Every structure is written in C-alpha cells, then in structure tokens.
Amino acid sequence: MKQREITGRTVLVLLIAFFAVVAGANAVLIRAATSTLGGVEVDSSYKAGLAFMREVTAAREQDARHWSVTAHFDKIGENANALTISVRDRAGAPVSGIAVDAKLGHPADARRDHAVALRSAELGLFKGTTDAEPAQWDLLIEIKRGDERLFRSKSRVVLK
C-alpha cells in the first residue's frame, strides 16, 4: 500500500475545515442559547435593589395582618384548571373591598406565563380558569385595595 504524502496544501485544507466546523458549531449553539432562554427574574437589577427596602416594609405589614390566603386548583378539562382563592382575616372572616390578581409564571421561560382572570364569587372568594398545560408553575398572588398592595405570595404548584 502506497502512503500518501502530507503537503502544505493538505495541512491548509484540514486546518480551514477544522476551524469551519468549530465556527459552525459555535454559531448553532449561540443561536440556540439566545433564542430559547426567555426567563428573566427581574428586568433591572438596579431598580430591584432600590425597591428592596420598600419590599421589606411591605412584607412586615403583610405578616402583621395575619391573613389566611389559600389557593386551590381543580382540573376541569384536558388543559383547563379552575383556580379558587380564599382570603380571610386573622379572625377567619372574609376580607372585603379587595382585588385579587393571579398569574402562573413558568419557572424557566417568561414567554409561557399565563394571567388568570379572577372574578369575585362571594365575599373573600375569587375564582378563575386557566388553560396552562400540565407542568410546574410559580403561582403569584397579589391582593390590592386601591393602589396599595396588601398581600403578595409566590409559590410553586404542579398542574396535572
């Protein structure tokens, strides 16, 4: 068997082919990384840092209220769930004069978040439905009276 001689031209072609493969793989991975990650916890870390003390004060005021806020999901269809939120004060009485907002946030991709439109079913009881697919979600509940936020919670839930 005859051995092939390695020339300068062969080395040049192999070197160019090697770096072309590396550059192509990098381009594919960069495109995949920038197009698939949609989750950002905060838009501006600087603004979040400035708001930190307001959040600490709001959390202390929320704890002082001793409200009982419970959320419950019931499956009502293939990809449909009913959300029921109950809001009670420290004495166990329903809280009146409040507005409740709920959102299902995807833990890794903010583009998949779902707002849950809630309506008051009775005093202190709010109901809504969502078409979020079965998965793990972050349930964000905010309760306001006018422009003042009285309660905020974020908890991990699993929809089946």
Report the count of strand segments: 8
Determine Rg (CA atoms, Å): 26 Å
- The H/E string reads HHHEEEEEEEE
What does the average pLDDT come to? Answer: 91
Q: Name the CATH homologous superfamily of the largest domain.
A: Macroglobulin (MG2) domain
Query: Number of helical runs?
Result: 3
N- and C-termini, Cα separation = 66 Å
Taking the sheet with the most strands, its summary is: 4 strands, antiparallel
CATH fold assignment of the largest domain: Immunoglobulin-like
| Strand arrangement across the biggest beta sheet | 1-2-6-5
CATH class of the largest domain: Mainly Beta
Helix/strand class: alpha+beta
Shape: elongated
**Low-confidence runs of at least 5 consecutive residues:** none
- Report helical residue fraction: 25-40%
List the topology elements.
Blueprint: H1 8-36, H2 45-50, H3 52-65, E1 68-77, E2 80-88, E3 99-105, E4 114-116, E5 119-122, E6 125-130, E7 136-145, E8 148-158
Antiparallel strand pairs: 1-2, 2-6, 3-4, 3-7, 5-6, 7-8
